[in-house]
Amino acid sequence: MTDTSLSKLQHEFCLKPNQADSLRIITNDSSNIFEAIEKGQQFVAISAMDQEELNNKGKVATMDANFKELLDFENRVRNQTLTMNALSDRIMAGEKIKDIIVPYKQVQKLFEDKWNNNEKRYNASDKYSTFRQNIWNIHHPDEIMPSLDENEDDDIVMGSTKISLRCPLTTAWLEDPVTSNMCKHTFSKAAITDLLRQSGGSVPCPIPGCNKRIVSLCLIADDTMAERVRRAKERDELNASTTQYFDVE
Ligand SMILES: [Zn+2]
């Protein structure tokens, strides 16, 4: 092959629609990463609850920083997926992209800037407010958590509602809690699995007002919630035995 034909080939080369498909295949692999990040977040959340119980404020602050770092990481992976999909769409639409690195960096930067420039990114995250709520509940089990954002109006505060530790289906303590990654509602595993089995594998979320559907694939084991239930039960038993003790007099 002569130099001219090689440079001609290089000049004419661009990504084709069938290659765009492989961009999407790459991003399908990221579900494993999300699972690992989720596990990491649950681990940090439980450690933070332990440290709060011991009144180790410094350690709780470190866990808080770790949790935020994991949220940033999660967002970066999500941005990568969005970037790949956006590029794949452009190639499918007939755009001639020669060097994918340049547009990749451009699109990725747009997503990253949007995240990093949002000062309220943590407070606006459901995961972060749940994380803070779990820590708050250690010493204030029956009190509403104050707003994470002091400037926010009280009526739009997120994460200030008490999260029920009872299964909405059985009304008993959550057992092997699983949380839907579509709507963040939590159920006892056996109860929701039974319901799914009776309904052919897919049901509208049983929580009134929730318009998402539940399928078994979207149910994630919720270690943090399991830990909260364990602590709440322990607290209840302790209260019960103390009451009993005082009742004797
Ligand atoms: Zn729901």
Automatic annotation (TrEMBL):
Domain SP-RING-type stretches: 152-238
Keywords, ordered alphabetically: Metal-binding, Nucleus, Transferase, Ubl conjugation pathway, Zinc, Zinc-finger
Pathway: Protein modification; protein sumoylation
Pfam families linked to this entry: zf-Nse (PF11789)
Location within or outside the cell: Nucleus
InterPro entries recorded: Nse2(Mms21) (IPR026846), Znf_MIZ (IPR004181), Znf_RING/FYVE/PHD (IPR013083)
PANTHER family found in the cross-reference section: E3 SUMO-PROTEIN LIGASE NSE2
Record-stated family: Belongs to the NSE2 family.
Record protein name field: SP-RING-type domain-containing protein
UniProt organism field: Helicostylum pulchrum
